[in-house]
Amino acid sequence: MDTPESISCNQCEALMINGLFCHETGCPNSRKRFENGEWVLYLKCFECGCDVREGESCSCQDPPEPTKHWIAGAGLHGCLFNHCAILDSYDAAVDNLAQVHELGRTRKATLKRAGYLELNLKRDGNEYCEITECDCATPEVHQD
Ligand SMILES: [Zn+2]
Ligand SMILES: [Zn+2]
Ligand SMILES: [Zn+2]
Questions:
Q1: What is the mean pLDDT of each run of 10 residues along the chain (144 residues)?
Q2: Domains of the chain: which residue ranges?
Q3: Which of 56, 63, 72, 130 has the fewest CB atoms below 10 angstroms from its CB?
Q4: How far is the CA of 87 from the centre of ligand 3 (A)?
């Protein structure tokens, strides 16, 4: 923190009045903030109204962070998934596929270990299921 005593203006004969730092009228620094020994102009972001240092862009302008998600898919080899769900953790994807196919403990453990499991088409309705990690910014595109 800059104490008021350490602030000085290089553009005018500024005064401390009642503990407030006061520039002379028309001083180009009067709209700036004193930070680490220099006068910095802050501008309001048009989008969110945050104060942003002159010359820098507001964090609200950054592209959205890609969010990691896991695709739990099941279907026939060479076809699009019959079943597809987006989960936010690997374990949730394992649970999802285990539930849909009523996997027993052994098959669920195999799926969890390999991220992939051959199924029994007659019994399970699908030939295989697999879990794919993805970090695209639009997880909803995977689902119908
Ligand atoms: Zn000044
Ligand atoms: Zn902003
Ligand atoms: Zn994705």
A1: 70 89 93 91 92 90 83 94 94 98 97 98 97 90 77
A2: 4-61, 69-135
A3: 63
A4: 10
